[in-house]
Amino acid sequence: MHLEELRFSGVISMPEFSRVTIAGREYLVLNLTVKPKKVKSKGKEYIQHYINLPKWISKILYEEAGENPETELPIVTLIAPAEWYHGILWDEMPERAWKTIPNKIRQELEALGLSRKPRKTVFIAATEEELKELELNPNDIISLEKLKRKILEKTMMKATPITPKKQ
Predict the structure, then answer these.
(1) In what order do the strands lie in the sheet with 25-29?
(2) Are 121 and 28 in contact (CB under 8 A)?
(3) Residue 17 half-sphere exposure, CB side, CA atoms within 13 Å?
(4) The pTM of the whole model exceeds 0.90
(5) Residue 9 lies inside a defined structural domain of this protein
(6) Is the residue at 161 inside a domain?
(7) Is the distance from CB of 16 to CB of 30 less than 8 angstroms?
(8) Which of 96, 98, 82, 77 is nearest to 22 (CA)?
(9) Contact at 8 Å (CB) between 56 and 12?
(10) Residue 142 has pLDDT above 70, yes or no
(11) Is the predicted pLDDT of residue 149 greater than 90, yes or no?
């Protein structure tokens, strides 16, 4: 049974998630929790931190890797601390609530596939230097439309020769 079938079959209960594609590889976007646990060793107390994967996601990861669930499985993760708006099921919220959040937050949620009308997002690989050459800020959300506009501007600037004024 694949992830989409599990999600809609009612067989298991799971948190919302979405999919994004980065450099040709598909990733799942979901909220996980880091939990502290106190441990004692050699008379000293330490805090270790754990992230528990939901059983449904572990099952999918082992199936996709073709591995036995009793073996150690290395996985690739993209991790960032979640904000309050990452945990809201926006497609279940009223339209007015969606409109009240700042535009930058809406763009981030759309890029992660966590918006009111989730769509799978594909990220384009570009270096920081390449974006700066186009006068784009690598820390901003850059839409395809913004990228196309900047490329056209740069192309037009190179194609238009500057002619001196006649006197």
Answers:
(1) 25-29, 18-22, 121-123
(2) no
(3) 20
(4) no
(5) yes
(6) no
(7) yes
(8) 77
(9) yes
(10) yes
(11) yes
109: exposed, middle or buried (Cβ count in 10 Å: 0-12, 13-18, 19+): buried
Structural domain count, the chain = 1
* Three-point CA angle 133, 135, 138, nearest 5°: 90
Name the nearest CA neighbour of 80 among 102, 47, 111: 111
* Separation CA 105–CA 50 (nearest Å): 28
- Please report the pLDDT score of residue 66 as a whole number: 93
* Residue 104 belongs to domain spanning: 3-123
Assigned token pair, 22: 């980065």
Is 156 within the bounds of a domain?
A: no
Closest CA to 6 of 17, 130, 146: 17
CA distance to 103, 138, 147, per residue, from 144 (Å): 16, 14, 5
Least trusted range by pLDDT, from 9-13, 38-42, 97-101: 9-13
Q: Report residue 74 as tokens.
A: 């290395």
Provide the 3-class DSSP secondary structure of residue 40. strand
